[in-house]
Write a structure and sequence with these properties.
The chain is an all-beta fold. The protein has a single domain, classed as 6 Propeller (Neuraminidase). It has two helices and 28 strands. 44% of the residues are buried.
Length: 344
């Protein structure tokens, strides 16, 4: 097995990041949004891929090691992209990457902006997987590993026809190196949903998203569960609907934690708990600023949630936060950078 080849990033705890220290330094993580993150249970590390900084779309891969982001040097990496779907397939101990957009914003036709390629990251190398079937090109889909079926489940996202965003509601499974369409019913067409595997109830929980009728805001939240290859809408008291929120399953406390997102009017900085089929807003002593397009995963080894980056509509962030015991703690900070107004 080839050994990891990495740059060691300078510890930036509350001191800054590449944008403050050295704009030419390639071994310091930059501000970014619309990136993808996942936890690798064999390596016991958090990985981050791609997204966009304040001015361009990226294809770099990073690993969080002892609270420090380290760049992983690989060959033949996927093309730069935002809003890709990234999952960890426990059966083969590999990362699976699907689709995304070549830009952050923009309405060029799908064949110009959107992707539907599938990649694996294993033994420190990217490899493109040639499949005989695949979901259509899309971005802002969500993908989760189902521990019960040992299959990756992908839902929704958007494509572009003409100059219009077309929201999707198809559900796919990835196994045996191929994609399989398993459902076109359940949650309505939407993108930007939050999804996690609920270890307590052995189901995949989906919340929110941007729907055809803009189903977000007060009294418009939706919570769904995927189990036995079927979607079931939970008949519970729903919180306000949001999309592009970050969500994890806290294995230690056996609850789902959701942060941030867009509520139809603004970015928010709310932290919510979902346990025993009840949503409740949490009051924390400290928390990240309002944002969406961030990403959060659960670090099983350290029993903490890890959140990185995002944006507030004007500035792109590069801060890293830990979540545990109903509280947030910043572990590295970075001066936000104003986003360049273009279709990157």
């Amino acid at each position: 097995m080839q050994k990891y080849i990495i740059h060691i990033a300078l510890s930036i705890s509350l001191l800054g990041c590449v944008n403050q220290i050295d704009k030419e330094a390639s071994n310091l993580i930059s501000v970014r949004n619309a990136h993808s993150m996942i936890y690798h249970s064999v390596d016991s590390q958090v990985y981050l891929f791609g997204g966009a900084n304040e001015k361009e779309v990226l294809s770099d891969l990073w690993v969080l090691d002892n609270k420090v982001w380290k760049k992983v040097l690989t060959k033949n990496e996927p093309d730069p992209r935002t809003f890709s779907s990234l999952g960890y397939e426990e059966l083969d101990s590999r990362l699976i990457l699907f689709g995304g957009s070549k830009v952050l914003f923009g309405k060029k036709p799908a064949n110009k902006n959107l992707l539907n390629d599938t990649w694996e990251f294993k033994n420190n190398q990217w490899k493109k997987i040639i499949t005989s079937n695949a979901p259509s090109p899309r971005a802002e889909a969500n993908m989760v590993y189902n521990k019960d079926s040992e299959r990756i489940v992908l839902f929704g996202g958007y494509t572009i026809q003409g100059s219009e965003y077309i929201k999707l509601n198809d559900t796919w499974e990835f196994y045996d190196n191929n994609w399989h369409l398993v459902s076109t019913s359940g949650p309505s067409n939407r993108h930007g949903v939050s999804m996690v595997y609920d270890g307590e109830n052995k189901s995949i929980v989906l919340f929110g998203g941007s729907t055809l009728d803009k189903q977000y805001g007060e009294s418009k939240g939706e919570t769904w569960a995927w189990k036995n290859e079927k979607w079931n809408k939970l008949s519970i008291v729903q919180p306000a609907g949001v999309f592009n929120a970050s969500m994890i399953y806290d294995k230690k406390d056996k609850e789902i934690i959701r942060f941030g997102g867009w509520n139809g009017k603004s970015r928010i900085d709310e932290t919510w708990s979902f346990i025993k089929n009840k949503w409740a807003i949490l009051i924390t002593n400290n928390k990240p600023s309002p944002r969406n397009h961030s990403s959060m995963v659960y670090d099983h080894k350290r029993e903490k949630g890890i959140l990185f980056g995002g944006h507030d509509g004007e500035y792109v962030f590069g801060d890293t936060w830990e979540y545990s015991n109903h509280n947030w703690k910043i572990i590295s900070d970075c001066e936000p950078i104003k986003r360049v107004k273009n279709e990157h």
